[in-house]
Amino acid sequence: MPEMHKDLPQEQQRVDHIREEINQKENKLFEKTAQLKENVIELRKTFWDDVTVNLDEPDDVIETEASIKQQAELLAQKETVHGSLAKELKTLNKLKDNPYFGRIDFKEDGEEKEKIYIGIASLMDKEEEDFLIYDWRAPISSLYYDYALGEASYQTLAGEISGEISLKRQFIIRQGKMKAMFDTGLTIGDQLLQEALGNNASTTMRNIVATIQKEQNKIIRNEKSKLLLVQGVAGSGKTSAALQRIAYLMYRYRKQLNPENVMLFSPNPLFTSYINNVLPELGEENVRQTTFYHFVQKKVGDDFSVESPFDQMEYMLTNKHTMTDQIRMQGIEYKSSLAFKQMVDAYLATLHDKGICFRPVLFRGEVLISKEAIADYFYTMESSISLPNRMELVADWLLKELTSIQQEEVSKDWVGEKIELLDKEAYAKAYYKARQQGADSVMDEEAILRKAVVHKMFASMKAEVKDFAFVDVAKTFEQLFKYHPELAELPNSWKDMAAQTVEHIQSSHLQWEDVTPYVYFKGQLLGDMKDRSVRYLVIDEAQDFSAFQFAYVSELFPHTRMTLLGDINQTIYAPISKQNPLLLKDGEEVERITLMKSYRPTKQLVQFTKHFVPGEHKIEPFEREGNKPKLIYVNKETQRKEVLKHQIKDLMNEGYETIALVTKSLQESKHIYDALTGEVPCTLLDEETYTLSKGVLIIPVYLAKGIEFDAVIIPDATNSNYTKEDQTLFYTACTRAMHELVMVANEEPNVFIQEASVGTYKADKK
Ligand SMILES: Nc1ncnc2c1ncn2[C@@H]1O[C@H](COP(=O)(O)OP(=O)(O)OP(=O)(O)O)[C@@H](O)[C@H]1O
Q1: Ligand 1 center to residue 705 CA distance, Å?
Q2: Which PROSITE patterns would you find in this protein's record (predicted)?
Q3: Is the pLDDT score of 430 beyond 70?
Q4: Which residues, including other chains, have CB under 8 Å from residue 205's CB and lie 6 or more apart?
Q5: What is the whole-number distance in angstroms between the Cα of residue 232 and the centre of ligand 1?
Q6: Interface ipTM > 0.85
Q7: Whose Cα sits closest to atom 8 in ligand 1?
Q8: Whose CA is nearest to atom 14 of ligand 1?
Q9: 711 and 742 in contact (C-beta within 8 Å)?
Q10: What is the mean pLDDT of residues 729-736?
Q11: Which of 204, 334, 428, 760 minimizes the number of CB atoms within 10 Å of its CB?
């Protein structure tokens, strides 16, 4: 048994004292909350007592409205206070369980030594004078993450503060009991990290506040760069750092930032649910989270059905390499590039003078305003006016035209016919309105009904005009693929590529490679609402963004600070990532941070995978011991199933809770699932899966991105399944494992296993 730390009783006493303080604070808050609750209930009950309702004269109506508003505001105010008290209570409850995880003794130059205790939130003493606990995001807490013993300094708004750290201590406290404590020197707690990483993988991600590493802290607290690029090897804590960074920003700018001001793009819904509890765990609300796919799909609207990136991926992994397939593959590559974006821009420039396809405004099956008339109006405007501004002007003109036609229509015969078909209720309404307006003859009543009927029909037409329904965006976009500019960068197969695309557009379907070009094009043509509410945008797994996609995002969020995190070695499909945003050059507002240390896998797993890391990045393993990866040979296909069953059973017996069979494609996943289902309890995960569960999971590698499992089994690590081109996929699959990796192959394992030195894995011939 390790020796007990001599200060443990003292530290436990402090914890007890803190818990007592928290109890007292909680009691006060409970009282306040109860009082407030009563207040709110009473206010709701008597809401109308204090409101003066008088609708006789217009002035009375205005007064009544003001009186209701005032009463409602009072109620809302009380409810907001109630909400923040509840939040405070929640935080106190968490602190009671685990008040802090670190302590540093810091002597600021010229001041007394101070003991700084660091936890997930701040806590003041009774007098509200001294900090009993500092929030991990407070400026002084950065000392804990950035320095060993000795001289140290930190930044405050007022400038740099220097001094000396004489003690750095870590605690594991659970339910108010000190489980362990260590004094550390250089890095933050290998012991604590060992503890955190030695456990089973979880179905939801954990926060890492207690053990944030210095390099990660740089990412979390970065404030100066407009664009922060983080390249980190698999398992280096990029996602963890991204989430801690969001929590940091929400604290640092708590007066200015709402959760709506921060947006996170994650790779898929499964991943979104995997990371969903980190921010609430830290006492922060979840920010806006979406996948890029959902984001652009909304912008496409009803114009097209949209292929998902996963369907595209599945296609890329399973296509038969026919001529048609080859052309599409070239198209996928070209349409991801900035060269294609330039081509779209060149085409857009031609539309200033001619070429936009319009739709006529129709009314009762007849053309009211022809598409030629709209085009004429559009193209007689100054060509220096931007396309979206001209669209607005056309819409204004059309609305005016419609209003005057609307007035003419009122007296037409068809309106009389419609009126006859109206029901009693519509009649009653018109009658009431007519009376209100002082009308008393039947004629007046009919005039009102006529107006109402025409107004209703024109209202929906006007709404369509405001939505630019008079522009045929799809057809105009289609013309892009019939456009053959003299561009040096146009690929040889452009004509075939274009013909394939036109076919899809005409059947109202957009393939994933055309989706971003389409929404970009639509935005340039009609105007895209630049999202100014997003102040910080975080993109995880940014290596899978194409240059075109990133350029689009950058234009859409022109004033937003961005953090891009990813691993160039885990790109799903390398050609798309040639101009990967992670490879952008450093500049005045661009900063790059590289993470080399991998925390997820054991040392043995890193020693194996480092032989076939796709890029040049060196990987430093975190010193955690485990078993060597296993390669199991099968010489007959029928053996594979038995081997898989046996391995799953062994891993379960070892106590592993998440065992993933990671395949190259969904097609392979389905195949394995069909073989195992009924014999082993297992779950097939596809893009429709929104939550991760424990047990045996079968998942294609592109969906497993960013997620980790206790054990990974690669059911077919054979040469024919993973060819030379599949390096990033195979690497990504292997690096999902925290503790164990098992690969099954026939006589010829893939080239990557062959590249690994024999001593780094255990081969087992069946
Ligand atoms: N400082 C840390 N303290 C404790 N655990 C950490 C730390 N950094 C990373 N980890 C753990 O390492 C694992 C990998 O972290 P994470 O998923 O954030 O890495 P990643 O770089 O996003 O990985 P990948 O690129 O492979 O998806 C997680 O279990 C995470 O909790």
Answers
A1: 12
A2: UVRD_HELICASE_ATP_BIND
A3: no
A4: 239, 240, 243, 274, 275, 277, 278
A5: 10
A6: yes
A7: 237
A8: 235
A9: yes
A10: 94
A11: 428
Least confident of 10-24, 226-240, 433-447, 570-584: 433-447
Q: How far apart are CA 93 and CA 126, in angstroms?
A: 17
**Site residues for ligand 1, CB cut-off 6 Å:** 193, 196-197, 206, 208, 211-213, 216, 232, 234-240, 567, 570, 599-600, 706, 708, 735
Q: What are phi and psi of 326, to 5 degrees?
A: -65, -40
At 633 the three-state DSSP class reads strand
Give the C-alpha separation, 570 to 234, whole Å.
8
* Distance from the alpha carbon of residue 235 to the mean position of ligand 1, in angstroms: 5
Instruction: Give, using CA atoms, the residue closest to atom 25 of ligand 1.
Output: 234
Residue 689 CA to ligand 1 center (angstroms) comes to 22
Beta-bridge partners for 174: 177
Cα torsion 704, 706, 707, 709: sign: positive
Instruction: State the distance from the centre of ligand 1 to the C-alpha of 208, rounded, in angstroms.
Output: 9
Determine whether the annotation assigns residue 705 to a binding site.
Answer: no
How does the average pLDDT of the chain come out, rounded?
A: 88
Residue nearest (by alpha carbon) to ligand 1 atom 5 = 208
Helices (H), 319-386: 323-335, 338-350, 371-379
- Cβ atoms of residues 247 and 132 within 8 Å: no
Q: Is the dihedral of CA 162, 164, 170, 174 positive or negative?
A: negative
Q: Report the alpha-carbon distance of residue 556 to residue 455 in Å, rounded.
A: 36
Strand order in the sheet with 536-539: 288-290, 262-265, 536-539, 561-566, 227-232, 590-595
Mean pLDDT to the nearest integer, 381-410: 92
Q: Cβ(156)–Cβ(174) under 8 Å?
A: no
